[in-house]
Design goal:
Layout lengths: L1 E11 L2 E10 L9 E9 L4 E8 L10 E8 L5 E3 L9 E5 L2 E5 L4 E9 L2 E9 L6 H14 L4 E5 L2 E5 L5 E7 L9 E8 L5 E3 L7 E4 L4 E5 L4 E9 L2 E4 L3 E2 L10 H12 L4 E5 L2 E5 L5 E8 L4
Antiparallel strand pairs: 1-2, 2-3, 3-4, 5-6, 5-7, 5-13, 7-8, 8-9, 9-10, 11-12, 12-13, 14-15, 14-16, 14-23, 16-17, 17-18, 18-19, 18-20, 21-22, 22-23
C-alpha cells in the first residue's frame, strides 16, 4: 500500500487547514473504490477525519457472472430481486458485450467505458412469457440498464448508478456449483450433424459426476455409466456403457439417446456457470448443455 499525502490551506470560518491522504494499492483492480481520508483542523487544534468512497465507472466488470440482488422498480422503490425457476436474474460483461438472464428471458447487448462513464445498451432478448410479477421485474431490470452511467463496488457488491449517482441495480457475484455431487439435466446436445438441438418432448436425460471419476445417468430410455477425468477445466469421458432396453415411443428417442452418448466422448472442456454446465469439444463446439436440478424428482 502506498500513500500520497496532499496538504493545502483551506479558507473558511473556523477552519485553518486540511490534509488529504490518498491510499492506493498498485495490485488493486482498475476501477476499484478509492477511499480518501480527509482531516480538517480548526483554529483550536480540534480535528476530525472524514472518509469518502469515490465511484469509478471503469471498475473491472469482466469475469464474474453478477446476480441481481436489488433493483429500483417502476415506483422508484429499492426492492429485492426474486428468482423465477432456478436461474437468477444476472448479467455478465465480456469484451464490450453483455449477456444475462433478465428474470424470464435471456438478453444480450453491449457496453462501453469512455471518459469515466459507463454506458450499457440492451440489444434484444428471447420472448418467453412469465407471471406478471416476474415480467415487471425483468422490464425494470432491462430499463434500468439503459440508464446506467457509472458503476461502483462496495464490499463486494456491484452497483450500477445513473448520472446523478442514484443506485439503479445491485449485484453480487454468483458462485458456480460444483461439477460433482449434483444432478444435471440435459437441455441441449450436439446431434452429430453439426447442430445443437433441444430434447424431444417428454423425454429426460441426466448426468451425475460422483467425484471418483464415474459418470452415471439416464440417457432417456437406458441408464448409462462412464469413466471421466478432469484437470483445470479439461474433461475426458470414456465411451459409455448402457443397458439395452428398446423404447419405441416417443419416435426418435433411441436416435436421441445414441447421439447424446456419442457426443459425450467428444468433450474436451467444461464450463460451470450459475446452475449451468456446458461441455465443449477441443475446438469450442458445444457438446452438451445441462441445468442443475436441486432435488431428484
Amino acid at each position: 500500500m502506498r500513500r500520497y499525502p496532499l496538504r493545502a490551506i483551506a479558507l473558511g470560518v473556523g477552519v485553518s487547514c486540511f490534509s488529504l491522504g490518498l491510499a492506493w494499492s498498485p495490485g488493486a483492480q482498475a476501477g476499484q473504490l478509492a477511499t480518501l481520508p480527509l482531516m480538517m483542523t480548526d483554529n483550536g487544534g480540534t480535528s476530525a477525519v472524514f472518509s469518502q468512497a469515490m465511484a469509478n465507472p471503469a471498475i473491472a466488470l469482466e469475469g464474474p457472472v453478477w446476480g441481481l440482488t436489488h433493483y429500483r422498480n417502476a415506483a422508484g422503490e429499492w426492492v429485492a430481486a426474486e428468482v423465477y425457476g432456478i436461474q437468477s436474474p444476472s448479467i455478465q460483461f465480456t469484451d464490450g458485450a453483455i449477456a444475462g438472464n433478465g428474470t424470464c428471458n435471456r438478453f444480450f447487448g453491449s457496453y462501453q467505458v469512455t471518459d469515466h462513464q459507463l454506458s450499457v445498451r440492451p440489444g434484444g432478448s428471447t420472448l418467453m412469457a412469465c407471471p406478471p410479477p416476474y415480467m415487471e421485474q425483468e422490464q425494470a431490470f432491462l430499463a434500468a440498464l439503459a440508464q446506467v452511467s457509472r458503476s461502483q463496488l462496495v464490499e463486494g457488491e456491484l452497483q450500477l448508478l445513473d448520472a446523478s449517482g442514484t443506485p439503479l441495480l445491485a449485484f453480487s457475484e454468483l458462485v458456480p456449483p460444483a461439477l460433482t455431487g449434483n444432478l444435471w439435466e440435459l437441455t441441449a446436445y450436439n446431434n452429430g450433424r453439426g447442430a445443437v438441438t433441444s430434447l424431444l418432448t417428454d423425454t429426460r436425460i441426466t448426468a451425475t459426476f460422483n467425484g471418483e471419476g464415474r459418470l452415471t445417468g439416464s440417457a432417456g430410455c437406458n441408464t448409462y455409466n462412464a469413466r471421466y477425468t478432469v484437470t483445470d477445466g479439461s474433461i475426458t469421458i470414456s465411451p459409455p456403457a448402457s443397458t439395452r432396453k428398446y423404447c419405441a415411443q416417443p419416435e426418435g428417442l433411441m436416435d436421441q439417446e445414441i447421439a447424446y452418448l456419442t457426443a459425450l466422448t467428444t468433450a474436451a472442456t467444461y464450463q460451470l456457470e450459475e446452475n449451468r454446465l456446458t461441455l465443449k469439444t477441443a475446438d469450442g463446439a458445444t457438446v452438451a448443455q445441462f441445468s442443475l436440478v436441486a432435488e431428484e424428482r
